Amino acid sequence: MSVCLMSTIDVSTQSDDLDEFARQWQSEGIEGDLLPMKIIGRMFRLMKTIEVEVGRCHEAFDLKYGEFDVLATLRRTGAPHCLTPSQLHQSMLLSSGAMTNRLDKLEQKGLIARAHSQEDRRSVKVQLTDKGKQVIEAVFPLHMQTLRSLLNNMDTSSRELLAGALKQWLAGIQD
User: Fold this and answer.
1) CATH code for the structural domain at 63-139
2) Whether the predicted pLDDT of 13 surpasses 80
């Protein structure tokens, strides 16, 4: 991955494939605002790159992203690092089917344990094991290093501007 500073790149004069796609549509008589296509198209490309880079980081620990997310969610809740599957589901926006599959895999690896609640035997608690805590504490710094490296071509003010714009956009389209 190449690293360059945002201040040294004038992207206003550079074009990419998405600019070319918009020009092609315009040459075919499509009128109107094609900026949404360029924005979303670039986001799709970014997500593919992010998935590959973050995936490499997690593979070193035999984790998929969803498994990492479960471990990270349990770790950030603080001791005793324990939540119900419903609490995990709400925090991570996963379907309950996807959650069950991830929990099964993490339990098989010895990274989490499931136990019935003392208060309500129908309720199950998911808890980070000592091994799971060791794994998430080892992978998390590398995960963050990977995310930082993906943003290396942007200066701090550009990152903050992007974070604010994405937050505003997300708040405006979420229910």
Assistant:
1) 1.10.10.10
2) no
